[in-house]
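re: the backbone from monday

yeah here it is again, tokenized this time
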């Protein structure tokens, strides 16, 4: 298997091993550690994010779907990369490294504008997200988006937002409705039963 095709976004333990081994290899070479830190800060942002469940009030009030909002990393990536390298230099365990990686992958949901307002603040060496959010006027609240329906359903020209709406309107079971929508037969008497993926 080609290494470039390997999916690694959720491989926190392997990432921890990589950091610990790489730092051990270059611990006496500051220039190599600098190169490693610069690559590491990008890799942190490539890992799967960990949602805190906290969303800015402005993000909620915008009415935008979650996909149109910003996953705002709580900890600046340069700060995070330095911290992980220092942990490895101090001889931390793999378990502690995994915990730290997940911590640095944590995100709040904000608007794009709120995220941008934090950029200059995050360049400060002693930046802490709670202070940064206060300065930027970002107010967080716990929030859960309602589950999104993947499809929009159409029966003979009439559109339905959920399959439950179809079941109620046509007096069929959910399983029957799903079978009709999934049918690909050209001459099927249910060819008027179609579905498309929801755009937003």
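seq for it, each position gets an aa:
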């Amino acid at each position: 298997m080609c290494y470039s095709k390997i999916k690694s976004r959720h491989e926190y333990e392997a990432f921890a091993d990589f950091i610990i081994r790489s730092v051990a290899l270059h611990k006496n070479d500051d220039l190599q550690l600098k190169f490693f830190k610069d690559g590491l800060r990008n890799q942190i942002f490539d890992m799967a994010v960990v949602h805190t469940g906290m969303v800015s009030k402005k993000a909620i009030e915008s009415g935008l779907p979650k996909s149109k909002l910003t996953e705002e990393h709580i900890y600046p990536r340069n700060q995070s990369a330095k911290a992980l390298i220092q942990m490895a230099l101090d001889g931390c365990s793999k378990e502690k490294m995994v915990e730290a990686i997940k911590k640095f992958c944590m995100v709040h949901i904000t608007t794009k504008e709120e995220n941008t307002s934090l950029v200059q603040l995050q360049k400060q060496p002693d930046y802490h997200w709670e202070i940064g959010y206060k300065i930027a006027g970002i107010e967080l609240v716990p929030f859960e988006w309602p589950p999104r329906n993947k499809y929009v359903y159409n029966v003979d020209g009439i559109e339905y937002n959920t399959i439950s709406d179809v079941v109620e309107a046509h007096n069929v079971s959910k399983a029957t409705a799903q079978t009709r929508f999934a049918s690909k037969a050209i001459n099927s008497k249910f060819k008027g039963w179609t579905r498309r993926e929801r755009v937003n």
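Residues 84 and 97 are 7 Å apart (CA to CA). The beta strands are 50-56, 70-73, 106-110, 140-142, 151-155, 158-160, 193-197.
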